[in-house]
Amino acid sequence: MSDAPQPSAAEWIERDAAVVWHGFTQMAAYPDNSPVMAVSAEGHHIVDADGERYLDAISSLWVTTLGHRVPELDQALRDQIDRVAHTTMLGNGNTVVVELAEALAPLLPVDDPHLLFASDGAVAVEQALKIAFQYWHNLGVEGRTTYLSFGGAYHGDTIGSMSLGDDGFGVDLYDPLRFGVLRAPGFDREDAVEQACALVEEHASRLAAVVVEPLVQGAAGMQLLPPSSFPQLGDTCRRNDVLLICDEVAVGFGRTGTLFASEQCGLRPDLMAMGKGITGGYLPLAATAASKQVYDAFLGEDLGPRTLYHGHSYGGNALGAAVALEHLRLIERDDVLANVRERGEQFGALLAERVAPLPGVAEVRRQGLMIGVELAPPAAGLRWGRRVSAGCVARGVLIRPLGDVVVVVPHLTTTEDEVELIVDVLVEAIGEVTSSAVQVQLDLSGAAAADGD
Ligand SMILES: *Cc1c(COP(=O)(O)O)cnc(C)c1O
């Protein structure tokens, strides 16, 4: 490296704001909200342009599983790049994608699955929607053109997945484009699944599929229901001949303590969407798994109408597949799921003891290593979620809120010490924001900034 001074994080942020548009971010406020400007990473830490280190306690928005720069994943990527980076999956194949599908198939809670690869979770959901829709058409069944989804649902940002998702975060702006769905209550209601089952019974003849985030509604602020709530959903769908789509984009790949949340829920979906953790957070890869029953309905004459006319340019990228394959091996080799369960319990105990009783905390929700701390601000517009997160970042722990829910999603390989550190920092940051003396000061300094979340 040259001796010339490197640009500071502040300079990078200025350059960034001049040309980059960040998702889910009000750009007018972006530079003032102390964004972390990553340059590199080591294990569980991100290093910014000033050389500051941050513990990545959101796993880079829930995608990084084993940490950054995992030697084996780096090597798998290097090895694959020496073979080929990408070849099309449309009408042709790639050996590493075959190997990945073979490795995944026996692990999926789907009967005799075939995998359709894509690049983003939203598209994995979108593919499941289209497959479910065409499935009935291919069988010659009419009228099954509607989906049932849940209150608080989030399935991605494409128009189809956004139609399934609930309102909020500006989604209702797109109402003229969104198709209607049957909506069951959200997981904040204990009887959400029961209500969903009643709706399935009542409307089965017009339902193509039920779409559910098994166990945890992540973007809803980590709303959860006990695993025992879910088996009846699978039974009801099967009895009424309605397809079940499980969106495992957030909960899949170990996040909740089992490889897939459907396992704990006693669900065997007809279609399952995966994304986020599939490559350990390395590369954009996603997949839709279809059961044999669904898949077989698409078999027919070449170029015929039973064909699924859907596919993306980068679907089944070879680099992503190579990393995903090695990632599966590491999850098994290092018994990562045991760590998720142990560290999850450690979190549970510490949060119950030190965070739940704090004034200003309404509820702590946790499943595996998905954690939501719901704050109870005394008035609207105080931006407690944002402020507590900023307080954590200032203490070297990268956190991002969902409204007034502070979300903690650490790496699946997080350590005992890191769990303690995260809770320490959370307690301090919450205390700082909720103590009234500081409150006045923050109200004055924070009042000017526009706010996206
Ligand atoms: C993140 C997420 C998606 C969308 O995945 P992208 O890769 O961001 O498109 C879909 N469903 C759930 C449950 C998610 O958490």
Question: What small-molecule ligands were found?
Answer: pyridoxal-5'-phosphate
What is the terminal separation in angstroms?
Answer: 39 Å
CATH-wise, what's the superfamily of the largest domain? Type I PLP-dependent aspartate aminotransferase-like (Major domain)
In round numbers, the mean pLDDT is: 95
Q: What is the CA-based Rg, rounded?
A: 22 Å
Question: What is the CATH T-level topology of the largest domain?
Answer: Aspartate Aminotransferase, domain 2
How is the secondary structure organized here?
Blueprint: H1 9-19, E1 38-42, E2 45-48, E3 53-56, H2 59-62, H3 71-81, H4 95-104, E4 114-118, H5 121-139, E5 146-150, H6 159-164, E6 182-184, H7 192-203, E7 207-212, E8 216-217, E9 223-224, H8 231-239, E10 243-247, H9 261-265, E11 271-274, E12 286-290, H10 292-296, H11 318-333, H12 336-355, E13 361-367, E14 370-375, H13 384-394, E15 397-398, E16 400-402, E17 405-408, H14 416-434, H15 436-446
Parallel strand pairs: 3-15, 5-6, 5-7, 7-10, 10-11
Antiparallel strand pairs: 1-2, 2-3, 4-12, 8-9, 11-12, 13-14, 14-17, 16-17
Bound molecules: pyridoxal-5'-phosphate (PLP).
